[in-house]
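Deliverable D5.2: sample structural annotation.
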Amino acid sequence: MNKAIKCTGITKYFYQARKNEKSTWNIFEKFKKGERIRVLNGITFNVRKGEIYGILGPNGSGKSTLIRIISTLLLPDEGEVTVYGLNVVTDCYKVRHLINRVSVEAAFFKKLTVMENILFSARLYGMEAGKALKKAAEILKDLDFSEDKINESVEDLSRGQQQKVAIARALLTEPKLLLLDEPTTGLDPKAKKEVQKFILGKIKNQNVTVILTTHDMEEADKLCDRIAIIKDGHFIAEDTPEGLKRKSGENKSDISLEDVFLQLTEEVAA
């Protein structure tokens, strides 16, 4: 079995209050009023082991909701997700030991140092402190993280440095599945290239399965083996970056993934 992730018919609803309604607590009343929005609509796809699979879509298209379902943070209303054969609902605790996640806004104890944050995460997974420190130092070195900043508090680091720490923390547990939710958003060009190089090199060579969401089309083109484009809770296209460009219908040798993305999302919106 070569499938790391199998998603079948994933549907998710959220509830929305009326504009003039002050309280948002009475969910059952809203349900009776039919005030629910379908944010994912029957999504089905598979991700192979060791694959970097990109999910691209406009803001509000449902990609972060899908990531949260795969990572066991949200329950699907319909459908099923398995990670390495384990159901994300019934086997959620086992799934959590196989995955880790880096989001656009990584959560830290900002007053603690880099290593104190990493050691806290290591303890949650039952890792021995000495092993965790050694492994974290190796990952940070591969990410070109300055050694003299390891004992600085996280709040004193730049956005790019914080994101490198988040990646090191995520890889500390040797996950089989790494969820990267806009990992380079807000980074300067140098930090972005360093993170992308690390994903293509170290992570890819370790045969870690990756799901990547990003608004950077050039990044997706460079990093992803396959890409799905999501719009209004639907997958409207799925292929390799080159396959998507060929299917665009444009006979241009210089067509970009951004051109394809805009063409597809605008056609669906029309």
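Annotation notes: The longest helix spans residues 189-205. The two ends are 40 Å apart (CA to CA).
The annotation will be released with the project's public dataset once the embargo ends.
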